Amino acid sequence: MQLLVLVFWFCLTITIIATAAATTNTNNIAKPGCQTKCGNVTISYPFGIGPNCSINPWFDITCNTSFSPPKPFYGSRELYNVTNSTFRMGNTVASRCYDQYGNITENIFAYTKMGNESPFTFSPLNKFTLISCSDLTIFSDPDQFTTGCLSLCSSPDDVIGDGSCSGGGCCQTSVVKGLKYYFTMTMSRTYGRDRSAIWKFNPCTYSFMGEPERFTFRGASDLIDPNFKTRVMATVPILMDWVR
Ligand SMILES: *[C@@H]1O[C@H](CO)[C@@H](O)[C@H](O)[C@H]1NC(C)=O
Ligand SMILES: *[C@@H]1O[C@H](CO)[C@@H](O)[C@H](O)[C@H]1NC(C)=O
Ligand SMILES: *[C@@H]1O[C@H](CO)[C@@H](O)[C@H](O)[C@H]1NC(C)=O
Ligand SMILES: *[C@@H]1O[C@H](CO)[C@@H](O)[C@H](O)[C@H]1NC(C)=O
Ligand SMILES: *[C@@H]1O[C@H](CO)[C@@H](O)[C@H](O)[C@H]1NC(C)=O
Ligand SMILES: *[C@@H]1O[C@H](CO)[C@@H](O)[C@H](O)[C@H]1NC(C)=O
What we know:
It is elongated, with a radius of gyration of 20 Å. The protein folds into two domains: 2-82, no CATH class; 94-242, no CATH class. Helix content is 8%, strand content 39%. The strands form four sheets. It has a seven-stranded mixed sheet, with no helix packed on it. A five-stranded antiparallel sheet has the order 1-15-14-17-11, with no helix packed on it. A five-stranded antiparallel sheet has the order 10-9-18-13-16, with no helix packed on it. The termini are far apart. By secondary structure, it is mainly β. A hairpin with a 6-residue loop joins strand 5 (60-64) and strand 6. It has three helices and 19 strands. The structure holds 2-acetamido-2-deoxy-beta-D-glucopyranose (6 copies). One 2-acetamido-2-deoxy-beta-D-glucopyranose binds next to loops. It comes from Tagetes erecta (African marigold). Its main location: membrane. Residues 1-22 form the signal peptide. InterPro entries: WAK_GUB. Keywords: Signal.
């Protein structure tokens, strides 16, 4: 099997302050006088909707009533739910697509930045995922952490579609505790393979962070699925840890 999946990992200066275990309870209630629900989602203190409803501006949630039912947002990301120590929010997926000659036709980066002072970090229960047969992607907060995935395959037969990300076409790597910022950077790498042959079954490379339990790798059909990005954005949230 002409298949090489190489995961490399190098930690630059790791200056991560471990966040203490969450000791606050949300108890499923909002501050008195404040809205408890936005559509189907319970927004409990210290999060809050509207002026003076959250503990501080980091915990401000907006409720967009132009959706039915209304949807809560943290900044520009949809908020799916809040627990005593976590919340789940909408995702962003990076993509790099090629034409049959190997020219790049789309190159969209993904990043999420919480801000150094924010009480939120990406949960280490998330994973970074790369879907590709020809590329290398770096996931990095250059001040703290850099990791990456390389996934190469020569034919759809190299891709295992049993739901897990464990063979050709899919590569996952861990998220370090305490991370508040990441971006993706994809580099075209075929290591001698024929780009136009790969293009026929894998025209785009995708990369994202998110909850691995929510992502099912469907094998070769994912490599050619034009709705792949839409599906991941709609179904794979980013899990955040928070402390008051
Ligand atoms: C938070 O913890 C409290 C106390 O353990 C519990 O009553 C409450 O239901 C929890 N809230 C959520 C949203 O999990
Ligand atoms: C919201 O809750 C209602 C009633 O429980 C349910 O029918 C509906 O499917 C939910 N909508 C979403 C978007 O989860
Ligand atoms: C928010 O609370 C502060 C202090 O309690 C008060 O001075 C201020 O008027 C409140 N703002 C709003 C918009 O209610
Ligand atoms: C609510 O969502 C709609 C549709 O995405 C958007 O056009 C609008 O700007 C949003 N409103 C607010 C207050 O963010
Ligand atoms: C939050 O959402 C996740 C994923 O949608 C779900 O598995 C979990 O049960 C939800 N938790 C609560 C407290 O609603
Ligand atoms: C695409 O690649 C071909 C072959 O290398 C080249 O001749 C062509 O100019 C490229 N087209 C664009 C739009 O870059």
